[in-house]
Amino acid sequence: xxxxxxxxxxxxxxxxxxxxxxxxxxxxxxxxxxxxxxxxxxxxxxxxxxxxxxxxxxxxxxxxxxxxxxxxxxxxxxxxxxxxxxxxxxxxxxxxxxxxxxxxxxxxxxxxxxxxxxxxxxxxxxxxxxxxxxxxxxxxxxxxxxxxxxxxxxxxxxxxxxxxxxxxxxxxxxxxxxxxxxxxxxxxxxxxxxxxxxxxxxxxxxxxx
Length: 209
What we know:
The protein is α/β, with parallel strands linked by helices. Helix content is 41%, strand content 14%. It folds into 2 domains: 2-138, no CATH class; 152-205. The termini are far apart.
């Protein structure tokens, strides 16, 4: 799919353009060390509300005429909602981009209201996107800094990417490497996420101590 982003190159936590900054609100930053939906060893801060029903909530909350299908993706900081617009006769990508841009403008106020409700419910920022045919666009998109310590061989990998012109900085090289791993290991990552969900379910079914 041909995706483009209206807002790239964010610094720090990122900001959106115009009044759409309100769509994401001011999410709570978790200070807990635990991860997972309230369990140690998972991926999510313990003081961030669970969002395992976010897909169903948005499907019920979004106006029925907006999308024919919606995909909701959740992590610790952000909920990204991307919907498929009604299939229209689209001759080229420019026409599709114009149709997506029109949808963005016409629904801005309503999306801000829905995002604020979701923010209060899930404690995360909300980002929006739409797709039509083979063209997709993200309207709002945050960039979150991730702190890590790397040993020399790992730093050398990043420096090689910078020296080769693949990336402009170590930070950009790390982002590139993460995206590359995600593209080539999606099946394995999906299995891993599924296994984590199974562990959560088993723990919830266990006896109280």
